[in-house]
Amino acid sequence: MSVSEAEHHQNPIRFGILGCARISHKFCRAISLLPSGTATISSISSRSLDKARQFAASARLHSSVKLLSPYDALLEDTSVDAVYVPLPTSHHATWAIAAAAKGKHVLIEKPAALCLEELERILEACAKNRVVFMDGAMWLHHPRTTEMRRLIDDPGRIGRLRLIHTSCSFLATPEFLQNDIRVKPNLDSLGALGDLGWYCIGSILWATNYNLPKTVVASPSLSLNQSGEILSCGASLYWDDGLVATLNCSFLSHVSTDLSIHGSQGTLLVRDLVIPYHEDGASFEVISGAHFAELHISWTKKPEEVVVKAPLRQEALMVLEFAKEVKLVRDKKSEPSLKWADISRKTQLVLDAVKKSIDQKFEPINL
Q1: Structure pTM?
Q2: Which of 9, 44, 256, 263 could form a disulfide with 158 if both were Cys (CB 3.0 to 4.6 A apart)?
């Protein structure tokens, strides 16, 4: 290894965490799983130092991690290369834009913003200050996703896409439905649509290689709480070539993260898309060229289970990908990739259309 390569390897991306949300523990664990020299936690900030101390203790952070308050103090910290933003969605634009203005790369939890206009302002700030942007959709970084992509693109396996369906749900506790930030209009006005619908819409667009639908229509089957927050909703998406996609997201039904992709020649099915059943690998089913057997008493083929091992947990793979992008900008003076920003933008665009259809009494929205 050359001297420059050794320096690059031993020069990890230094993260600051804006806030002590519960998911920040998962982020800290992801950092701990990465190869040495990839990334480290430099600072964590909270609205109170006491809360930062409690978080640092519960997450077993190294004593060298700086505990800061308020959030602005972290943005002024010159030892921070990138920020992880797990704050309520209503705070994303304010702090992501402020971080970018200070030259900090931005890894932000999903949903990326409350609306496309907010997201565009975040992305504009990132582009202006040459910093990397990525949202926290971890499943995109799992090797299973790469293998599914390969099979979908294989002309002999799935064929022309005809129907996609996805669901993402969990049965929320009474305490969640009363107190969680995701059911508070002043903190996250998108409710289940933002929290879970981001995955549904993202996976549909991923399946189509981010080819946007022509029309979006929300389903009248809608559940709201007393504050008007979305607890459960659905939508249908339509393309000019006849492709149809449906999605359902809910805080009111049993846990699910399903994705089924049906083409002219085959079907791909995954039951644990967002969070795999097992950390060290994941699987999906695929079946091609099947028919009903004589007398329609069985099938001519059975689904094949494809198992994909994961060298790292998907959240660690996400941070690894982000760190690689940041190192290219920092060390090689490369321009930040627009790949992840474009994915977030298209996801937000369709999410906005679903919300607009809901607000307009389920009228079709043309994109």
Answers
A1: 0.95
A2: 263
